[in-house]
Amino acid sequence: MASISKTVEVRGKPQEERRRLLRAFDPTLDGAGVWLVVPCYKVKAHILDVIAKTPAWVDGIVCVDDACPEHSGDFIEANNKDKRVVVVRLAQNQGVGGATMAGYREAIARGGQVLVKVDGDDQMDLGYIAHLVAPILLGEADYAKGNRFTSISHLQTMPTIRVLGNAALSFAAKLSTGYWNIFDPTNGYTAIEGQVARMAIEKRVSRRFFFETDFLYHLGTLRAVVRDVPMPARYGREVSNIRIGAIVGPFALKHMKNFFQRVLGQYFVRDFSAASLELVFGVLFMLFGVVYAVHYMTTPHKTAASAGVVMAAALPVILGAQLLMQALNFDVLNVPSRPIHPYLRTIARMEAEETAK
Question: Which of 51, 121, 135, 243 could cysteine-pair with 141, CB 3.0–4.6 Å?
Fold first, then answer.
């Protein structure tokens, strides 16, 4: 894909000339319909740098003023010189999720086919946009996201508390979303295919800081393919709006809710498989063994428990644990592997042709 040095060479040239250069460099970038979506909230000091670093082959940039107290929208329109920029203003603050989905809608309405979301605080290296877009253009994924945990060297600038917190959240996200093949779920540097985004934004996705993980959960209900893209962490003097202590409890509850909803929907509503039976009997055996053991221990007895009593309590627990592990193994192997966006694009094209008749 295009490197930073190459993209600088075509920046500022007329549209047709830019297209010609892009075709010569990489045909997949020509007419790809790549749009950047940038939620803006208290990022006035950095947003112009983000716009300036956007590769020339990106077709458009949607900056979403999320009722920003710094009036980011007005600031961008007054100081920005890039004609690709479109400013969207939200009357009320909707959080990073609400702002991102508003940006998705605007980009889709303007012809965006691949939508890249970056934060406006200049913590994300825009040189990796091509790395995120490539799996989608090649038809290998519906959604690509950054992963800062693929190398120890990538974590050198990340605070230790964030490393530990992200590791814990990543495991919780695997359970609640079903995407066992990904890590770093709170990474907000993402790219999504337009037709998939059109379907996902109609779902009840969390609007605040749980947005990235909740979005993954809803992508799982669509059976969309998600791909991790290795990239280093970048931290400067920017101040995060997230307070770790305030989100631990709510995040845990949301993960539990999504986990139970996912298991119910995936294994008992939309499908019924061997894992469904393993889950049912695994839970029943575990409960029977635990209840029997508790009942026996809370009832007075003159003699020690016999081998039969011990086995009556232990064996169901052992069998139940084995069945649940088998169900977990099935779930790990059941990660979506076939992208859905070619199917969605075909449907959209056929519907457009039918409407045009």
Answer: 135
Three-state SS letters, the chain: CCCHHHHHHHCCCCHHHHHHHHHHHCHHHCCCCEEEEEEECCCCCCHHHHHHCCCCCCCEEEEEECCCCCCHHHHHHHHCCCCCEEEEECCCCCHHHHHHHHHHHHHHHCCCCEEEECCCCCCCCHHHHHHHHHHHHCCCCCEEEEECCCCHHHHCCCCHHHHHHHHHHHHHHHHHHCCCCCCCCCCCCEEEEHHHHHHHCCCCCCCCCCHHHHHHHHHHHCCCCEEEEECCCCCCCCCCCCCHHHHHHHHHHHHHHHHHHHHHHHHHHCCCCHHHHHHHHHHHHHHHHHHHHHHHHCCCCCCCCCHHHHHHHHHHHHHHHHHHHHHHHHHHHCCCCCCCHHHHHHHHHHHHHHHHC
Residue with tokens 């969390």: 206
Q: Is the pTM of this model over 0.85?
A: no
**Which phi and psi angles does 36 have, rounded to 5°?**
-100, 135
Query: With bands split at pLDDT 50, 70 and 90, how would you rate the model's confidence at 25?
Result: very low
Q: What's the sign of the alpha-carbon dihedral 174, 175, 176, 180?
A: positive
Q: 51, 61 in Cβ contact below 8 A? A: yes
Question: What sign does the dihedral 179-180-186-190 (CA atoms) show?
Answer: negative
d(CA 181, CA 169): 14
CA–CA dist 304, 307 (Å, integer): 9
b/e burial code for range 196-205 (CB count within 10 A of at least 16 → b): bbbbbbeeeb
**Amino acid at residue number 259:** F
User: Average of pLDDT values for 252-263?
Assistant: 93
User: Considering the chain, what is the average pLDDT of its residues?
Assistant: 85
Express each pLDDT in 194-215 by its tens digit.
Answer: 999 999 999 999 888 789 999 9
pLDDT tens digits, one per residue of 73-118:
999 999 999 999 999 999 999 999 999 999 999 999 999 999 999 9
Look up residue 114 and give its two tokens.
Answer: 């691949």
